[in-house]
Specification:
It is a single chain. The chain is 34% helix and 22% strand. It is an alpha/beta fold. A six-stranded parallel β-sheet has the order 2-1-3-4-5-6, sandwiched between helices. The longest helix is centred in the first third of the chain and has 13 residues. The protein is globular and about 30 Å long.
């Protein structure tokens, strides 16, 4: 008999310009016991985060998007909440290591696409459970 997953119910903001990634990640989070809201670009993410920042436990943020790129979105989200917990999502190199821009402290982990449900869950648990720690975690396919 399969043991049911614990009811977590933290709210996660997922930001990605690819609708399929938004849908799959949102559905996966719901199955894992989280609540999810989505945005398709950095500007939408900022609006959404501004309205719900007190409820949002973490933000999964694609670092390569139109309208407002990931690093600009990180800085904008930090202006709303300096303690925002961001998980950078990328299909390429570490977006923070390759940049000298501010906002690096808000990025608590990097998820490399395509990532597994297991990597997503592990990363969320570490980031949400880390409190104010600024530890960087890298996850993706094993």
């Amino acid at each position: 008999m399969t043991k049911p997953l614990p009811e977590r119910r933290e709210l996660i903001l997922i930001v990605d310009d690819e609708e399929s990634i938004l849908a799959i990640t949102s559905d996966t989070l719901e199955v894992l016991g989280y609540r999810a809201i989505t945005a398709t670009n950095g500007a939408e993410a900022l609006t959404c985060y501004s309205q719900h920042h007190a409820e949002i436990a973490a933000v999964i943020l694609d670092m390569s998007m139109p309208i407002m790129d990931g690093l600009s979105a990180v800085c904008a989200l930090q202006s709303v909440n300096p303690d925002v917990k961001i998980i950078a999502s990328t299909g390429g190199i570490d977006p923070i290591k390759s940049s000298n821009e501010s906002g690096q402290d808000a990025v608590r982990a990097v998820l490399y696409k395509p990532y597994t449900a297991e990597a997503l869950l592990q990363t969320l648990r570490e980031v949400i459970g880390a409190g104010r720690k600024k530890k960087r975690h890298h996850a993706g396919l094993s």
